[in-house]
């Protein structure tokens, strides 16, 4: 029953790593391991040392902000900021590393959030199937937008860089918006349509903005002082 929930994100992440046209699979292993270890650590800390319980309400904005911060915004900002800070590699490699970094982090983190929730919610079709698809779509869109944002800023094109950054922020809210509509029992056609459009848009964005140039094998200088 939990197979799709547990396999959706890791399978997508491995596929994206294998089909990456900029760097070979082994070049992306360091950020993948970083995301995996970080997610395990976060889940262990949440499970054994944090007893905070969120009280759900019927407030649309409170629910939206809570889900967005918990599921997408804080994980992306904290993980990417720390990785970009400590990795001494090129910005091109850092942008490409967002896929394995966030992919493997979310592969553990999202199932943990769902399976540690209430029995009523974690056994629903939304949590078992729709939410993993939404997070997968979010990963696809985020990696493309971050890559273009980094490319724009490194080319000193601040206008496009700001636009892509704003798009990243907007994308972070869409899975939370969909879940909020579902949680508050808004008309099903609304959140179903939003989920379908977001997923289709993320796939299209990935297909049309995949790098076309294949670089030669390169082992990244990860977390070292060399360049």
Secondary structure elements and their pairing?
Elements: H1 3-18, H2 29-49, H3 60-86, H4 91-96, H5 98-115, H6 119-122, H7 125-154, H8 158-183, H9 188-208
Helix pairs in contact: 1-5, 1-7, 2-5, 3-5, 3-8, 5-7, 7-8, 7-9, 8-9
Question: Could you describe the 3D structure shown?
Answer:
Helix 2 packs parallel to helix 5 (about 100-115), helix 3 packs across helix 8 and helix 5 (about 100-115) packs antiparallel against helix 7. The protein is globular. It has helices spanning about 5-20, 30-50, 60-85, 90-95, 100-115, 120, 125-155, 160-185, 190-210. By secondary structure, it is mainly α. It starts with a helix and ends in a 19-residue tail after the last helix. Helix content is about 75%, strand content about 0%.
Q: Which strand-content bin applies to the residues?
A: under 5%
Class derived from helix and strand content: mainly alpha
The overall average pLDDT, rounded, is 88
Task: Bin the helical content.
Answer: over 70%
Q: Can you tell me the overall shape?
A: globular
Task: List unreliable stretches of 5+ residues.
Answer: none
Record field, number of beta strands: 0
Tell me the span between the first and last alpha carbons. Answer: 47 Å
The gyration radius over C-alpha positions equals 18 Å
Number of helices: 9
SSE arrangement, N to C: HHHHHHHHH
Q: Tell me the major beta sheet.
A: none
Brief overview:
The chain is mostly helical and 227 residues long. It is 74% helix and 0% strand.
